[in-house]
Amino acid sequence: MSRKKDEAGTFELLTRLPHQIVSLAKIEYQNAKREIITKAKRAGIGAGAIVVALFFLFFMLEALVIAAIAALALVWPWWLAALVVAAGLLLLAALAILGGVALIKRGNPVPEETLDRVGGDLSAIGEVRVNAEPPVPPHSSREMPRVGEEGNWR
Description:
Layout (H helix, E strand, L loop, with lengths): L9 H64 L4 H29 L5 H16 L27
């Protein structure tokens, strides 16, 4: 089978291979970078939408507080209704703070169980006794010891 003049031979193809691998790696790097940038832009837009929603949610909560004051103002004077609603919000904030502090205290980031296991492993390793002297072969000649078929010195 003969090749055409415009077709490359084996050695020419082999010399092109490193350059093609480097080119492929660069192209894949650019594709990965482009994909990450696209996904990061989408995530940024999504985070912006969440911030806008939280902004409107904050004002909605203010409107609910005003509505609660207005509803209580039908029964009590407006200043008393505002004080009762403020006291309720203060109570809710205090409960949230106490709950958060309790969770923080309970959520100690030190992996105590793992440290205990590692300490146990280290103490077990420390108890292992290692022979300081190498085994003495049973013969007294100066030639190097050889291992037999069963793994014994001979």
